[in-house]
Q: What sequence folds into this?
């Protein structure tokens, strides 16, 4: 159901289709019963976590955002001039900072009528939507919820450019990524296209720096999931008793981000009526970030019922952008 923020903005809250705390409780119980223990990265992104991630994107070690931004700046005129998209739908929009490069070009051509940013953090999303509504002559319709729900419940009125930036597809295991992209493909029409960013396989040293920044912002972001568990589920985690640990796994071509317990400890989660035991050195896997080649990205698209029609990369082969259509 769409509700109004003000006279010019309507918001669709897809999170109402599920009980957030019930889903969080289920995921936490399931994840912490595994060996090794695991928490799902979508729970990083409350308002505090979203702001921390925005800080990460500005760090000197974090090449992804500035490289992707430069690519978007170079291809935006082509996307605006050669395609007739009237809508733009973005998964995991955050502050929509990079997306403004596309909005600038597509609104200047005059065809774009609506922008639909989708994010889990309602307050962060609404604040961004209000800024965009003032700045651009289009309808901004924010959607609160998990991007894994795809295009579900989103009203459509014309050819859409569906956007999934930041290499976020790499945070999903391969089968989950293929399932998610299949869901997108099912909701796409013949004139729609998917613009997706993929982080590329590269020197592991550069990857290590990107996920272990000198200011410790990534460490704060990683530990934020413990703050979420404390607030939402009555957890008794002491974030200072865990260390941020991120490393590159070359066999699976992915970064693995973990929280490592510095001591033997038993941690109650009161709302779940459980107590979680940790040995010193035991870790929780909090995020993966898979790295791609052009060929592996094409294989993933094919498995999801999509076909790559365009590929762009920077001169150093750090990051890639692709355009795909329904097969």
A:
């Amino acid at each position: 159901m769409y509700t109004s923020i003000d006279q010019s903005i309507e918001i669709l809250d897809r999170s109402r289709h599920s009980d957030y705390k019930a889903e969080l409780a289920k995921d936490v119980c399931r994840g912490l019963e595994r060996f090794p223990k695991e928490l799902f990265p979508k729970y990083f992104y409350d308002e505090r976590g979203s702001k921390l991630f925005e800080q990460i994107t500005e760090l000197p070690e974090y090449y992804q955002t500035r490289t992707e931004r430069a690519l978007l700046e170079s291809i935006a005129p082509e996307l605006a001039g050669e395609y007739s998209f009237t809508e733009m739908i973005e998964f995991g929009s955050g502050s929509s900072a990079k997306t403004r490069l596309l909005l600038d070009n597509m609104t200047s051509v005059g065809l774009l009528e609506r922008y639909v940013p989708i994010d889990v953090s309602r307050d962060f999303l609404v604040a961004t939507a209000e800024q965009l509504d003032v700045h651009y002559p289009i309808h901004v319709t924010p959607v609160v919820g998990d991007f894994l729900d795809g295009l579900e419940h989103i009203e459509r009125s014309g050819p859409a450019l569906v956007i999934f930036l930041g290499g976020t597809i790499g945070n999903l295991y391969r089968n989950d990524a293929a399932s998610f992209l299949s869901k997108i493909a099912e909701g796409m029409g013949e004139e729609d296209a998917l613009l997706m960013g993929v982080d590329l396989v590269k020197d592991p040293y550069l990857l290590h720096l990107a996920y272990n920044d000198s200011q410790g912002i990534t460490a704060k972001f990683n530990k934020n999931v413990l703050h979420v568990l404390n607030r939402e589920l009555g957890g008794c985690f002491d974030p200072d008793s865990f260390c941020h640990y991120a490393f590159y796994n070359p066999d699976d071509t992915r970064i693995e981000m973990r929280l490592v317990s510095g001591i033997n400890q038993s941690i109650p989660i009161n709302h779940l009526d459980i107590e979680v035991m940790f040995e010193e050195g035991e870790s929780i896997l909090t995020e993966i970030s898979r790295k791609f080649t052009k060929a592996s990205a094409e294989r993933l698209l094919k498995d999801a019922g999509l076909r790559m029609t365009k590929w762009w990369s920077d001169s150093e082969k750090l990051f890639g952008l692709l355009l795909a259509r329904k097969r």
User: Anything to note?
Assistant: The mean pLDDT is 93.
